[in-house]
Each structure stands twice: as C-alpha cells, then as structure tokens.
Input
Amino acid sequence: MAGIFGLFDFTKEGPGVPKDAPPKPRFLLFFDIYTRKFWNLMKANIMFFFFNLPALAVCLFLPHIFFGDLYPDDKNVDVMLKFIFSLIIVCVPLLTVGPAQAGFTLILRNYAREEHAFLWSDFKEYALKNFRQSTFVSLIDFLFVVLIANAFSYYFRYSNEGFMTLLGRVFITFGFLIYLMMHLYIYPMMITFKLSLRQLYKNAFIFSVIKFFPNLLIILTCFVFIVLTFVWANIGLLLLVLMTFSTTGFLINFYVYPIIKKYMIDPVGKDKKDAHPETEELLPEGEGQGQGQEE
Output
C-alpha cells in the first residue's frame, strides 16, 4: 500500500489544472515561466555569452574609440555617458554575432510561448538555418552603430550650441531609439517566418512606430535592470555571464511574441480585410508559413 492509509502517496495523480481555470495575468505568467526555466535560462546565457564575445568586445570599446573625451573637464560625466551608451547597446540585441542571436532567440521564444527547446541542438540548428540572413543583419547593425556613434560624437562634442545643434541631437537620438525598437522584433520574426531582409526591416519599423510607448517601456525596463546589476561592477560582470542576456532576452520575447502572433500569425489564411487594418502591411506577402515551429 502506497503511503500510510492512502496518505503521503506521492505516486497518486494530483487534481491537475481545471479546464475552465482563468489564464494567469501576463505579469504573473512571466515570473512563473522564468522561475521554472531559470536553470535552463542560465545555461543558455552562458552559451550565448561565449559565442557572442566578439560583439561584446565591440560594444564595450566602440564608445571609447568614437567618442573620445566628450567632456574633458568632467571625467565622471564622460565615463558615465560612454557606459550608458554601452549598456543601451547590450540591453537590446543590437550588436551581436547574428547566428548566435538567432539560435538564442529561438530558445527564448519557445520558452515565452511555453514550449520545449533543446538548448544545444535547437541553438545550433537555428543558428545555421538563419546564418546568412542573421550575418547580414549583424553587419548592418555594425555599420549603423559606427555611423550613429560618429553622429553622437559630432553633435555632442564639436557642434556649436544653437537650435540646429539641438535639432540634430533630437533627430539622431530619436533615430537611434527607433532602430533599437526595431531590434525587439527582427530576430523573433527571422526565426518564425521566411521573410526577406526588406520585409524584416519594414515590419520591424512598423512595429516600432505603432507600439512606440510599450516598446520604450520594455527598453527602459531592460536598461534599468542592467544598470542595477552594475551597481557593483564585479557582480554586474558575473551576472553578464550568468543571466543578464537571458533575463532581458526572455522579457523581450515574452513581450514581442504575442504581438507577432496577433498581427502576423493569426491573420495568416484570412483575407487581408479581416486582419488588423492598421497593420495590413505586416502580413508576410504569401510567405507566412512559420519556419520556427519545433520539429
């Protein structure tokens, strides 16, 4: 007889989850999945960190190369601005080794939609499957960051004060912000659909505009999280290896996937008139069959 008079029988099935149980609020669901997948997220973070070391080196040293001494009279402000620029690049998948980012995103996206992912085999499969396209994206990102770093350097160091200078600073800051927001969507779409580069960037731009304020909130949340981890530099570096990328990446995919599902997956097979009118351009033009389904 299992247990004692039927008690303490851990082989007996539990009551399970009622069929009509209301879904958990998204906020609670995020922490529920995160705690259940914590160790796997840590393993994925370590794996991604080592594959992404070249891009991390660029993220850390690029501000020093292009910005020089923005404020030579105040070294603390100068160092802080470079540090902030580096953290912004790190908190969103902007400068990455493209194939590593594609494989990493597949794992995080599957966790976000509560599906299983094999850490190494799925990472490798989707890194190779999206190798060409993700490499192009990472090269475009590198060129963009070099240009934006030069623009920041010019407008914050050499340009005279005045209305045009202020306008230039606002313009490049807003452009940089939009480009960051686009990267919330580029890799999740890449590993879910068969889209051309043009379609990827077009759809990502549309999402960055129509979801501007929620996107901004997600970026600020990631940024604040990373800043808090670096209150103590040594702890921040340790967490960068162990959990920072997987935490911010999971948050991004948890936020992005329902949006992609609503506007790009659910309308597939329907007439465009049945899709959300403000985002008809998001339909993948006959190429909507996802390549991101787990095989």
In short: Residues 26-268 form one domain. The radius of gyration is 22 Å. The chain has a mean pLDDT of 80. DSSP finds twelve helices and no strands in the chain.
